[in-house]
Amino acid sequence: MNGELFSSVFLLLLVLDPLGNMPFVLSLLRNTPEARRPRIILRECAIATLVLVGFLFVGDWLLYAMRLSDPALEIAGGVILLLIALRMAFPPPKHTAAEHETATEPLIVPLAIPMIAGPSALATVLLASRHSNGETLLWVGAVVLACLINAALLLASGWFSRLFGKAGMEALERLMGLILTAIAVQMLITGIRIAFKIG
């Protein structure tokens, strides 16, 4: 049980990508008073957690309504995670900080959604709801724990940025991308085996 919880939290953290989101958070909140930044980050993380937990409970119903099979979901989830992993391992050119600045305090968009509870995180939770096998509470715990760790890392984004520097942060994100690539490929292999009854 503990091993499954750990692997679930680890997978969710890879998808949430807090280290990769740190520069975005720092840029988005650069015009916000420093005293208010922790409150904003905690609020947005709480909203994202509620969205992900809610999706965990309605995900199975959505799959049934859309008539999606297990292999189709496994392969689709693998493809989505692979695309996210490739973007992490080979990031596109960064946007300038000016593009992320906003005159008003961010609410829900873009921090809670889609930065934290984005398509990849929702797809992962959707896949989990399909394969929970009565262990929904374990995945609720995994989602909450992963979001708490994500929030703690985002709160420490300024400290991490000073400690590792730009090059160090990029190296950590690429390492996470490589790990997520292996997980995505395994999902694809599992889905293809089930779909074509191989082995």
Description:
With 199 residues, the protein is mainly α. It has one domain. The chain is 78% helix and 0% strand. It has helices spanning 2-16, 18-28, 37-65, 70-89, 97-100, 111-116, 119-130, 136-155, 157-195. Residues 95-103 have low confidence and may be disordered.
Output the keywords.
9 helices; mainly alpha; 199 residues; 0% strand
Q: Brief description of this entry?
A:
The chain is mostly helical and 199 residues long. It is built from nine helices and no strands.
Task: Set down the secondary structure blueprint.
Layout (H helix, E strand, L loop, with lengths): L1 H15 L1 H11 L8 H29 L4 H20 L7 H4 L10 H6 L2 H12 L5 H20 L1 H39 L4
Helix pairs in contact: 1-8, 2-8, 2-9, 3-7, 3-8, 4-7, 4-9
Largest sheet geometry: none
| Whole-angstrom Rg | 17 Å
Low-confidence runs (pLDDT<50, min 5 residues)? Answer: 95-103
Q: State the share of residues found in helices, binned by percent.
A: over 70%
What is the succession of H and E elements?
Answer: HHHHHHHHH
Please tell me the total number of domains.
Answer: 1
Question: Which structural class do you get from the secondary structure elements?
Answer: mainly alpha
Q: What is the total tally of β strands?
A: 0
Distance between the termini: 27 Å
Specify the overall morphology: globular
- The average pLDDT is 83
Range of strand content: under 5%
* Number of helices, where a helix is a run of at least 4 consecutive DSSP H or I residues: 9
